[in-house]
Design a protein that fits this description.
About 10% of the residues lie in helices and about 65% in strands. The chain has about 140 residues and is mostly beta strands. The protein has one domain.
Length: about 140
């Protein structure tokens, strides 16, 4: 149930962050101890959300271009997420939930979409997409 709620929340964030405003927007929530988050946005209309909760999570995001969107979840402890988007209209999401998971997404081009959801412990996921209109989904469960 927790996985479903987080996944639905991730989709809602990605669907709801768009705006006609030319400014870039990111919000970060962290709660536990020892978190680190860095977000750099260059361009216009970039949107994003980092949420971390447990402890010792790391998130690093770079967005270049226009109208890119991202969401990172995490929840448990010691998860690491990296997102890099260069282009226009790209969407990326990472969720994670458990402990010791690592996810990296790189998208270069336009209108690419990547989603990663991991639960449990010790999962690794990496996505690299270049060009336009690519879609990637990784779901790992258990352990």
């Amino acid at each position: 149930m927790k996985t479903m709620i987080m996944a639905v929340g991730l989709v809602a964030v990605l669907a709801g962050v768009g705006s006609a405003d030319a400014g870039n927007r990111t919000w970060v929530e962290q709660y536990g101890k020892g978190h680190g988050a860095a977000v750099m946005q260059d361009g216009s209309g970039q949107r994003g959300h980092v949420f971390q909760k447990g402890k010792k999570h790391r998130a690093r995001v770079i967005q270049l271009g226009n109208g890119n969107q991202f969401a990172v979840g995490q929840d448990g402890s010691a998860n690491a997420a990296e997102l890099f988007q260069d282009g226009n209209g790209n969407i990326a999401g990472i969720a994670q939930f458990g402990s010791g998971n690592s996810a990296a997404t790189e998208q270069i081009g336009n209108r690419n979409t990547a989603a990663t959801i991991q639960t449990g412990q010790g999962h690794d996921a990496a996505v690299t997409q270049s060009g336009s209109g690519n879609i990637s989904v990784i779901i790992q469960y258990g352990k």
